[in-house]
Design a protein that fits this description.
This protein is mainly alpha-helical. It has a single domain, classed as Rossmann fold (3-Layer(aba) Sandwich). The chain contains eight helices and four strands; from the N terminus they run αβαααβαβααβα.
């Protein structure tokens, strides 16, 4: 599962894993476990580039079994991660409009992510738009692209099953 922060990767990913009866993996959680630090602490103490290398290393530990993984929003954009993910599994881009993401993050009080550390809603809107523009070329390389503003896990499961039949 790939997409912008707040696109629903973790929520839908967990539900999708239940639909397929496979484990759910949250890549950020796995990175935190390996580093014994939260994602914001890794960014603060080691910087984004060190985080991105750790992210790539942890990502590549999961390639043997069937599972659903929610990646961080920037995962596909570094260290050939998108190429790697496409070569080892089915990637699903949850395409949620940036304005909807801003609304979700504001409602959830979840704008404190490392790359979204901003002062107000206007700054958050600008930052989300910047991320969307820079990341969209990577996201569009996904095996499956779903307009996910209000999609249900069962609908994603059907799309993936149709993809597999091809």
């Amino acid at each position: 599962m790939i997409g912008l922060p707040g696109s629903g990767k973790s929520t839908l990913g967990g539900e999708l894993a239940r639909c397929f009866s496979v484990p759910f993996i949250d890549l950020d959680h796995e990175i935190s476990q390996v580093a014994s630090l939260s994602i914001p602490e890794i960014f603060r103490s080691q910087g984004e580039m060190s985080f991105r290398q750790l992210e790539a290393n942890v990502l590549r530990k999961f390639s043997q079994d069937s599972f659903v993984m929610a990646t961080g929003g920037g995962t596909p954009c570094f260290h050939e991660n998108m190429v790697y993910m496409n070569s080892t599994g089915i990637t699903v881009f949850l395409d949620v409009p940036p304005d909807r993401i801003v609304k979700r993050l504001m409602e959830a009080g979840d704008a404190g992510r490392p790359l979204l550390a901003v002062q107000n809603e206007d700054e958050l809107r600008n930052r989300i738009h910047e991320l969307w523009v820079s990341r969209l070329p990577y996201y569009q390389q996904a095996s499956v692209q779903i307009s996910a503003e209000s999609v249900k896990p069962e609908e994603i499961q059907k799309v993936i099953m149709n993809y597999l039949k091809k």
